Amino acid sequence: MKSIGDEKTIGPDDGAQDSGYTLSVGQNFGQFRIVRPLGRGGMGEVYEVEHNVLHRCYALKLLPPDFASRAQALERFEREAHVMANLEHLNILRVDDFRETEGRYWLRMELARGIQVRDETVVSLDELAKAHGGKVPQEELIVILRQILDGLSYAHERGAVHRDLKPSNILLTKDGAKIADFGLVRLVGEEWVQSRAELSVRASMSLGDRATGAAGGGGSSARSLLGTFEYMSPEQKRGEEADERSDIYAVGLMVYRLLTGRNLGVKRPSEVGGGVWEGWDPLVSDALEDRPRDRFRNAQEMIQALRSIGDARCGTCAQNGRERSRSERVRENRGPGIELPGKASDHFAGADSGSSVGRFKAFLLRVAGSAFFSGAVYTAIAGGFPGSAFLLASLSVLCFLVSGKIKH
Q: How far apart are CA 298 and CA 293, in angstroms?
């Protein structure tokens, strides 16, 4: 059985109590019947449930048991859950209900069933990387990354910041990648999450894998919070307010690890080896700038940079970085009648120059030029009205053809 967003994965014979879960398979929880546990993390437990009346399956996220005892918990839950429920986008895991049952607060979400990879069902981006030996194929990563950024752009435009992006929070479905737990950090409390994450880091450093790998109790929660800390932006680790550029940093870090299979180092992705395209280097570099103002300003800007990555397959040097990709994006997105900066000869090398229409226009342009020259000579020698009229007609044809080429 696969996890859904959180770190703990359990088998079909694992019991709820043995795994540290608070609900058991077959148990009724309000209007739901527990089908199976899906995952545990630092911010709650996730179960597949079936609605007793609708007979539809959902993913149910239970917040930590002590959530209700925190200051202003109910107010924050209602406010942030409302924000989550109003994020309706193909690449964001849908939250369609939130309530309290038996003293536990919960969120009802769509159930991500995963995709098939080599006869194996994988549900998260983290699992996809593991299925491919630690890295995600670059062509596939481009598609997934575009979907993630589309979802982020939609949410950021509505004032929602994720604050906990990591591969295990990117779920995979037949409809594409979906971002899970959007707004969950804000809901349970940023200070609480950061303090718990820092404790997990210190425990990991002092006790090794035993601190995060212990069975039952808090093992999976510690691993989840450790992952949260690892993908935090520098400003989040300093306790500063996160914004959309903090999410951009987390995406850049995910891309580096999914490309190289390694933790972030001093080498660019293409320098690590494994055939990583050079085009990834400027994208990752811009996303991982230490100062937020030096990163991509928003997800849309990162999407534009993503379009240029395929050029690396043709051996394009990435040293021009972002400026080069921006100029290319202008060319890709230009419409009729938009004149681009550059050499004058560029205006006459339009896309139709290789077609029969283009060749015919070029021929007329040469004829008009010759006629203009002849008219000028005739005017200089003969003077008078015939020469002037011939000169004016030739000049008009020339201007018309040149204008048509520039607009094209």
A: 10
